[in-house]
Amino acid sequence: MDFVSIRIITADVARLVGFYERALAVRAQWATEDFAELRTPGATLAIAGTRTVPLFAPGSARPAANQSVITEFLVDDVDRVAHDLAEFVTDFVTEPTTMPWGNRSLLFRDPDGNLVNFFTPVTPAALARLAR
């Protein structure tokens, strides 16, 4: 089995896609006005509008209601990326911080309030985990 994507449901697809295009420096691939994907080498971030929810199960997902998931992206230099994000990210949760497990992490919220972590492994143990 392969992990392929995570999907965020939003009330404003264009706004959220624009935010992630800028944050990830990746152009979205639009399927419809209600669905776009931002493809990275490791996985895909899908963004869908609320009109797509009933196709799966009515009422099964609500936009801007995430309180438990952090979407994470590996970056080459989290400190440099933090500087670049400061131009448009309005809700930083933590500045770049080296975590006990050896990643230097930057936590912020997207326009819907979803948590996003950009991180760079900086210790030998963290780098070794990444090499697997």
What does this structure look like?
By secondary structure, this protein is of the alpha/beta class. The chain folds into two domains: 1-57, 2-Layer Sandwich (Signal recognition particle alu RNA binding heterodimer, srp9/1), CATH 3.30.720; 69-132, 2,3-Dihydroxybiphenyl 1,2-Dioxygenase, domain 1 (Roll). Helix content is 23%, strand content 36%. The chain is built from four helices and eight strands; from the N terminus they run βαβββαβαβββα. The strands form two sheets. A four-stranded mixed sheet has the order 1-4-3-2, covered by helices on one side. The longest helix is centred in the first third of the chain and has 12 residues, at 13-24. The radius of gyration is 15 Å and the shape is globular. The mean pLDDT is 96.
Task: Summarize the helices and strands and which ones pair or pack.
Blueprint: E1 5-10, H1 13-24, E2 29-32, E3 35-39, E4 44-49, H2 53-56, E5 70-74, H3 78-85, E6 92-98, E7 103-109, E8 115-121, H4 124-130
Parallel strand pairs: 1-4, 5-8
Antiparallel strand pairs: 2-3, 3-4, 6-7, 7-8
